[in-house]
Amino acid sequence: DRRWRELLGDHFRLARRDLARHRGQEVKTTGDGLLATFDGPARAIRCACSVRERVHALGLQVRTGLHTGECELVGAGVVGIAVHIGARVAALAGPDEVLVSSTVRDLVAGSGLEFVDRGSDALKGVPGDWRLFVVPCRGRVSRAISTPPSPLGRGGQGRGPRGRRPRPASRCSRGRRRCRRGVPGPGRRRS
Question: Which of 45, 83, 131, 157 is the most buried (most CB within 10 A)?
Fold first, then answer.
């Protein structure tokens, strides 16, 4: 317990430094994660990439999901469909991934940021399919994008990892995208 608390504290210290540097505002912690808002999606993406790189020194990987939209301030928190979508995008991110909605990608056109198309996914509780993109921070794209999921997935039900329909390899290896909802907590490092 003590070692986990120390590691989590180190993770939050690194994330908060990057939040301050990129003009992000911490809204709340969510167990081992962090919800933050930004005054622009490009800053959110750059912050996510920076946190992703910094936590490697701690032996951690993070999953980050970004979306942008209208939010309602309620007390010290934020609520609304945009927050819900951001949480769903984060839930689909793989280890070491910065995953963004097409809304974010579209808003940062001309910024020089690059995106890899992850295809469309259904977001729980949100109507329709949403186009998602991975941000290759410093030219690195996680293995989760370059290797398509098994067509048999879990229990041979025709679903890939996390119960999603498999994507063709061509969809997994092209495209680009970015956006930001918050800095996720540390994930377990796989060897």
Answer: 45
Place of tokens 């989590």: 8
Confidence (pTM): 0.72
- pLDDT, tens digit, for every residue of 93-134? 999 999 999 999 999 999 999 999 999 999 999 999 999 999
Query: Which class for 22: exposed (0-12), middle (13-18), buried (19 or more C-beta within 10 A)?
Result: buried
C-alpha separations of 31 from 10, 12, 37, 66, 181 in Å: 14, 11, 18, 18, 16
Tokens representing 144 are 């989760």
Burial pattern 112-147, b for ≥16 Cβ within 10 A else e, equals ebbbbbbbebebeeeeeebbbbbbbbeeebbebbee
Within 13 A of 78's CA, how many CA atoms are on the CB side? 23
36 residue type, one letter: A
